[in-house]
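**User:**
Everyone, produce one record:

**Assistant:**
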Amino acid sequence: MALFISVIIAFALDKLFAEPKRGHPLVFFGALVERIEAKFNSKNATRWHGVLAYAVAVLPWVLVGIILQLLLKPYLFLDVLVSGVFLYIAIGWQSLITHAKNIYHPLIEGELTEANAALSLIVSRDTGDLNENEIAKAATESVLENGADAIFAALFWFLILGIPGVILYRCSNTLDAMWGYKTEKYIRFGWCAARVDDLLNYIPARLTALSYALMGNFSGALKCWKEQGRQWKSPNAGPVMAAGAGALNVSLGGAARYHNELQQRMVLGPEETEHTKAGANSINEACRLVNFSLVLWVVILGIALL
């Protein structure tokens, strides 16, 4: 029951206040990570340098979480409240929905320049001159994928390990976002952060994919997940995005440009037709799918705990 109340507190805080605009702990963590990287990621850095940097960046905070949880255990009210606050800090539910709406509204009005600018804040691909379909695809993919990362994986590890679990996940996921690139600078140094993030996301990603299937076109989601999920470049984003595309009956994936280089990605979801072509409404539907999936998780948790 206490765990359930902490979850409700976290999502209520996120609904009311969204992501803190000033003084967010992850901003402090990001600045610390940059200093750690400056010390460990030299020109001759190996995977072991990355392992040590990961340990220095993450493990002390996990230890703080363990100690804090032990200290709070005798004080039920304080434990519930503080746990809820930590989960709130780790999730990005309303932030994700707000970013998506900031793309949807100008796109539906035909303001492609404004929509591209809003899209550039949440994707890593080039967004300078995308058309309506390309913007809608990119935004829909981002909502589906980040639903798993920003919401469901953080919630999963909170439910499994409490405060230390959500600290471990959010710090690892942040490191992957900063170091997990297959570039000359990070291919060795970022290996540990990327592999740990893959491991921590493995079960939550598949639970998210199942949630999308249950809240959308079930048979279509399972079919796309089975046939396309493993072929995507990311072992965890693949099942999530394929199942999400199938659940929404929308065609995603395909060619996209990253750092001025055109990448031919596989198609996710059904084959593109006039009925399955991504548009502004696809973004809205992806947000609804994430929200309905969150309701499903909370209902199941409530039934299980009560």
